[in-house]
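Hypothesis: this fold can be encoded by more than one sequence.
Test: take the structure tokens below, design a sequence, compare later.
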């Protein structure tokens, strides 16, 4: 009982940060964890499966070649041969994708469309990274960037797909 009293006194004595700062830090940390690249996972399951897992974990949706419906649920990712499902389109509306996760896209060879709408963590360096991915250069037909407040006109005008 005495131990509990000492611990509770220590916790009560801690200075609390304002709630908004606490919350903002926590969500930023959590989003960074969701975006962390696991190169071993990419090697084990292939770039399309690993990128699908990353995108869905961050709140985006993907559509595979030959399918009309969008894959929205991480827990219902298709199973079967790893090379069967190739990402054709990505809709990252309101997702938490950020530059540290863009290495997931390196091996994607069939992406024709990417939609970035209200992606608060997308910045100019993310778009520069996308433009450097050779496989995307070959397959990309359309890219939408809408209301991504950290993207400047400077970077969007210099991107060529």
């Amino acid at each position: 009982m005495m131990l509990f009293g000492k611990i509770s006194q220590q916790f009560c004595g801690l200075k609390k940060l304002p709630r908004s700062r606490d919350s903002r830090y926590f969500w930023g940390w959590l989003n960074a964890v969701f975006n962390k690249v696991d190169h071993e996972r990419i090697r084990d399951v292939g770039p399309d499966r690993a990128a699908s897992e990353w995108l869905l974990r961050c709140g985006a949706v993907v559509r595979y070649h030959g399918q009309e419906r969008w894959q929205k649920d991480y827990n219902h990712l298709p199973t079967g041969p790893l090379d069967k499902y190739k990402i054709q389109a990505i809709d990252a509306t309101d997702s938490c994708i950020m530059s540290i996760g863009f290495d997931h896209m390196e091996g994607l060879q069939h992406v024709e469309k990417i939609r970035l709408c209200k992606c608060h963590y997308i910045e100019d360096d993310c778009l520069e990274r996308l433009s450097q991915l050779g496989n995307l250069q070959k397959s990309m037909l359309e890219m939408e960037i809408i209301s991504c407040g950290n993207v400047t006109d400077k970077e969007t005008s210099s991107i060529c797909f």
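Residues 27-158 form a domain with the Leucine-rich repeat, LRR (right-handed beta-alpha superhelix) fold (CATH 3.80.10.10). Helices lie at 2-13, 19-35, 39-45, 47-57, 124-131, 134-139, 153-158.
Hypothesis status: open.
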